[in-house]
Amino acid sequence: MKLRKALALFLVFAMMATSVIGCSKGGDDKAAGNNTSSETSNGDGKDTTSTGEVVTLKWISVGNGMPKNYENWLAKINPYLAEKIGVNIDVEIVPWSDWDTRRSVIVNSGENFDILFTDGARYASEVGLGAFLDITDLVKTAAPDLYSYIPADYWDAVSVNGKVYSVPTYKDSSATQYFVWDKAIAEKYSVDYEKENTLAGLSDTFKKIKEGEGTAPVVLDKNGFEVITSVYDQMGVGLPALGVRYDDQSRKVVNVLEQEEILSQLDLLHQWYDEGIINADAPAVGEAPSYRMFYTAQGWSGAAKTTWGPNMGVEAVTGKFIDTIVSNSTVRGSLNGISANTKYPEKCLEFLQLVNLDSKVRDAFYYGLEGDNFNYNDKGEIEKLNNDWTMAGYTQGTFFNVSKLASDEFNQWDEVKELNSKANPSVLLGFNLDTSKIETELANCRSIYEKYRSELMTGAREPREMVKTISAELDASGFQTIVKEAQSQIDAMYNK
Question: Where does 2-171+333-421 sit in CATH, by number?
């Protein structure tokens, strides 16, 4: 108990300290990087260049596909990167609908990349496959400013078996879930969106909207409402069926799907699916449409004005769905791993340091091409010219060096910092599960969960019998071995 409180206080103080730094300003389908310079490794993990030649790094990430003005953007950003750190960048932005498949191909085939976006769903397994470089020591020397800028707890949160294999993104690294509404629809049907914070409380409202609008008010993609499991700390292993409830002081490891609070919400989703409140094709939809009259999203309330509304093309309003939680898993929501096979490990870290700490670079990745996607005003604020930029800002680097929009009445990043500092810490904050003894069981259980996830989390099938089937297959594949090992490690840490 004392350890948990100490960790929680440490997190708050670390975030408060770094938030001061976060306000400062610095100077935010393509071919593989050519990597043809004479730069080599000198044997201690550092890059050396005998000719001073600029090296090209390939960064693969996810978003809404390649920007239409990518070549023009590249022509502007690369000379700046070359001058600053001797690097050019080659970015591949994979569409959301293709990401799971593309990501698997990249990792399993050994395809060339230098930096790859990843997250908690796959990070641990990708580390287990040897995809990423151990940067535990190198990040401190190759990117010391970046290492100091990101809170110490975040480096701990991305550790796997005591080693760091990725750079965490310092952003809304706690997780707050919101209901997001088209304001016109919410007002038309008298939705008390600021106070309604349960799925069950929305049933009657959705029935009225479906009758009035003649269409499903809840449009889901194949990921469905998996957010309901986020109140369980999944220990960063990418298996939502495994977890400890974030506020359970006993720290009992459970099958999340079998918990009544989860089953009751799955029952509701199934009812909505049968009633046509959820779109019938949800289990097969790779990517939800940009406009939806209602959906859930992780973020902050100000995003309704700056992001969610503009992306939908309407005015959006929000209500908090799940309170703010910080855990190892929430920190792992956005990570960038460096390839274990890169020729330029130090350059990769120098580049990620620049993306995070140089506002000119940060803005270029976040907003796009100056003069085409945005302009700076006399105050150094951003005036967006359109919403055409398709890179996903949360995948890249810190939010706290992204320039403020001129149209904002407030700095939304201040709200993000406040949410981080006031987040409810998971009872497992700071705990890192050593998966070395259970890698095979985890891999098998992830495959089973993925097989059923879409139909379960969209409500397409009756959940209670389905969960029995899933649980039986999980147990046959070693799930209880995972539970026993996780519980043993947790008890050893907290019950001293």
Answer: 3.40.190.10
